[in-house]
Amino acid sequence: MDSVALKERVPWGPKGPLGVLVDPMTWRAVPYLLVSAGVGIGWFVVLSMAVPLSLALAVVWVGVPLGMATVLMWRGGAMLERRLLGAAFGIRIADPYRERPQRGLGRHIQWLLSDPATWKDLGYLLMLLPLGLVETAMSFGLWTATAMLLPQPALLAMKEGAGLRSELIVDNWAGAWALSAAGVALLILTAYFARGMAWLHGTLAMLLLGGSEEERLRASRARGIDAAEAERRRIERDLHDGAQQRLLSVAVDLGRAQAKFDSEPETVRTLIAQAHAGTKAAIAELRNLARGIHPAILSDRGLDAALSGLAARAPIRVDVAVELEERPPAAVESIAYFIVAETLANMAKHSGATEASVTVIRDHRGVVVDVWDNGIGGAVVSPGGGLAGLADRAATIDGVLVLHSPVGGPTIVRAELPCEW
């Protein structure tokens, strides 16, 4: 969940015992959980010294620059945490800070201290101490016990073969295999614990480090308005530089033909032929422009036909399944169409996919659009990028975009579009 309204939820869905052990996400979380107590203690010590010292020295003005440096330090720490959470838990949280002022020391201080995200960052870093103690203590204890129980048969064999003595090794094979089986069960339990703590930690991080839902929606709607204004200017420019110039040329040719109608009939034929060709070219440009604004097939025949047309023009095989008992509102249809169109275009340019699918269903939340491809994955959201623009478009009707694109693929883009807003 992030400030460009593209929400990527914590990818910790339910899995069976084998699935939880082979899922790379489980093992990516383990190192972070083992060291989170050290990170929490470090931040608590630094902040508990820097913040009171800054406040105490503020009366002699020395504390003012020290306080600003402290604020910048913990904001930098929060930014680093967002990146670490992406590597450890597979969640992406964009920096939710307000736009930085162009100049002025006073404005910069106000910008730092009036931004709610600044104080949420501080709350998150202080929260790391109690949460990290629980994560590290439980993780260390469970992994240590697992490491002691699992190899009991091997240790017993070493004892019998080399005459080793150890209090950790049972004296019979039945007991050794029983302890090893208990170690397997504990391994699965520990893996589930790691996933559960990762889900809890990631959820708290998204709440504190990702900004409020209202702020995200306000920002995304503002970007949606900017995008609409940019689109209006693009259409105006395309009309002026394309169809308008061609129609002006047609008018000039027809005027010349009218002037030479009686005296130069052969020239008139040439001019009329040029005007005819120019008219056809202008019509084609207007048709392409109208398709980019709102394709006629979408209005006439709905999403199924419109998305099938997109799939037919794609460079690879794209399966389309639209399961809608009735047509959704026109705004939902339009947004769903352009999300699929942009996603397929990005896929063709960057993913290296050989096949893809588009699924549209209706559930209790509204219309859900899934676009899947088997490409190389690794898609990210960047401000001003195509995916961010799609998320902003969805947010204009309180919809969200969910991205799951691990390195190596596959990539899934899901749009959840409410039919009431």
UniProtKB/TrEMBL annotation:
Pfam families: HisKA_3, Sensor
Catalytic activity: ATP + protein L-histidine = ADP + protein N-phospho-L-histidine
Domain Signal transduction histidine kinase subgroup 3 dimerisation and phosphoacceptor span(s) in chain numbering: 231-296
SUPFAM superfamilies tied to this protein: ATPase domain of HSP90 chaperone/DNA topoisomerase II/histidine kinase
MF-aspect GO terms: kinase activity
Enzyme Commission code(s) on record: 2.7.13.3
InterPro entries, sorted: HATPase_C_sf (IPR036890), Put_sensor_dom (IPR025828), Sensor_HK_TwoCompSys (IPR050482), Sig_transdc_His_kin_sub3_dim/P (IPR011712)
Domain (Putative sensor): residue spans on this chain: 32-209
Keywords: ATP-binding, Kinase, Membrane, Nucleotide-binding, Phosphoprotein, Transferase, Transmembrane, Transmembrane helix, Two-component regulatory system
EC class: transferase
Transmembrane segments: 29-47, 53-74, 122-143, 174-194
Gene3D superfamilies: 1.20.5.1930, Histidine kinase-like ATPase, C-terminal domain
UniProt-recorded name of the protein: histidine kinase
Species: Nonomuraea purpurea
Lineage, opening ranks: Bacteria, Bacillati, Actinomycetota, Actinomycetes, Streptosporangiales
